[in-house]
Design a protein that fits this description.
146 residues, mainly beta, 5-stranded antiparallel β-sheet, 5-stranded mixed β-barrel, globular
C-alpha cells in the first residue's frame, strides 16, 4: 500500500467515554464493568468468566427486565478512580505502583489469592478513602481497559 500523499480525514472519536450495550443486568455508577463473551457489558466480578475490563460506568442503568442490548451505558476508559480495598487487604504507601485485580465491581486487591478469574484493572497511584468511608486505593485504569 502507498503512503498518504494528501491529507486524510480519520474521523477522530475521543475514546475517553464510550457507550456500550448492556447485558440483561444492572450496572451502577462508579462500578467497574467488562465485556462478556457475547459482547455486552456487565459488572466486573472475579466469579464471572471471560470478561474483558473496559472501564468505570458513568451512570446507573437497569436492564434486568430487558433483553441483552436493549439499553446502553456510558463508560470512562481512562483516568483514575478510588476503589474499595477488598476485606482483608490493608493498603499502604508501599503498594503505590502495584497492579490490582477486580474482586467485585468496586473492590480491588493486589494478589490473585481467592480469585476464580484474575482480571487486572489498573495500577495504584494513591491511598485514599472511598466516598462511603471505606479504606481504598486510587486506581489508574489507563492501558488496562480494552
Amino acid at each position: 500500500m502507498a503512503t498518504l500523499t494528501t491529507p486524510y480525514e480519520a474521523f477522530e472519536k475521543p475514546g475517553l467515554v464510550v457507550n456500550y450495550k448492556l447485558s440483561n443486568v444492572k450496572v451502577l455508577k462508579g462500578g467497574m464493568v467488562g465485556i462478556n463473551s457475547a459482547g455486552y457489558i456487565q459488572p466486573m466480578a472475579h466469579g464471572t468468566s471471560s470478561l474483558k475490563f473496559i472501564g468505570v460506568c458513568n451512570e446507573t442503568i437497569d436492564n434486568t427486565t430487558g433483553a441483552a442490548g436493549d439499553k446502553s451505558a456510558n463508560v470512562t476508559k481512562c483516568g483514575s478512580f478510588v476503589m474499595k480495598a477488598v476485606t482483608g487487604y490493608v493498603p499502604s504507601i508501599t503498594d503505590l505502583g502495584k497492579e490490582v485485580y477486580a474482586n467485585t465491581d468496586w473492590e480491588v486487591q493486589i494478589s490473585t489469592s481467592g480469585l476464580s478469574n484474575s482480571y487486572k484493572v489498573g495500577t495504584i497511584v494513591g491511598i485514599e478513602t472511598t466516598s462511603t468511608g471505606s479504606s481504598g486505593v486510587r486506581v489508574r485504569v489507563d492501558n488496562y481497559s480494552v
